[in-house]
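Researcher: Predict the fold of Aminotransferase.
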Amino acid sequence: MRTDGGHDLRHHGDAEVRDDGSALVDLAVNVRADTPPDWLRERIAGTLGSLAAYPDGRAARAAVAARHGLPAERVLLTAGAAEAFVLLARALKVSRPVVVHPQFTEPEAALVDAGHTVGRVLLRAEDGFRLDPAAVPEDADLVVIGNPTNPTSVLHPAATIAALARPGRTLVVDEAFMDVVPGEREALAGRTDVPGLVVLRSLTKTWGLAGLRIGYVLAAPETVAALERAQPLWPVSTPALAAAEACVSPRALTEAARAAERVAADRAHLLAGLEAFAPVGLRVAGPAEASFVLVRLPDATAVRGALRAQGYAVRRGDTFPGLDAEWLRLAVRDRATTDGFLRALSRVLASA
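Model: Structure tokens for Aminotransferase follow.
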């Protein structure tokens, strides 16, 4: 497993629960709990009788396009957003890619695997991990940023991100968690006025489809065509295509909007509970706007191990460039789960 600059770019939250996750309350993976819903399971199961036929993505592609008010030639369906990062790294002809960190590490890992030398812009905790467009090198011809950003939970203004656009530059915005933001404010998905814009979306987080792998790219037709040429034949399965079509339906969008409001309320409950630990040095990065929060506390590695012994898995932060071993990421869960976690955290810190 490769590391870069001391950071294991291939470490993800599922590693925290992979071997004994059944015995742990999962606060490490950012997939919404109790998903997929029954109606979506039934929709996916209904495709099993047609698995002998090759997948046909036209209907799903048209549905995603309609959801964002775009023509179908601006949409590419992918096996999760992670595949899109690989396609971008392999298909685009770029000479100076830059990744804004801390953020999801898979974009940089994919670029390195494709032979690129990757520049980093490190946002600072003392600045609230806010983006300063002037920090991005002017000659960068590929810029990758998450919004809201994993793991910081920071939501950057759309205008600030759009200010990164330049002639000859590809601007990749990972909006995998934008649908947990009420009203999807600051979204760039659907915009056609920002030159070089590529927006990535995932359907695996809100709908609990990480095992199915489904996401999509929104970009100019020529960019979509270049990425599509880099894909293997039939890259998205028939069940995943059915899920994509279902998850952008009016019913699904209404349900997702309600879920985003619940996440915001549950996050506020978590943040209020974490305030009690400020006297022992716990600090929350923020303001948090996604379905997870990033916290800093002394001896976080030992705390993470002690929480595991208490039955709770949390995400280590030191695999993200720009963070160190004092950071942990916590998934937002329902109030009962959060209350149990806060009690466990209190026990751990009291014993420490």
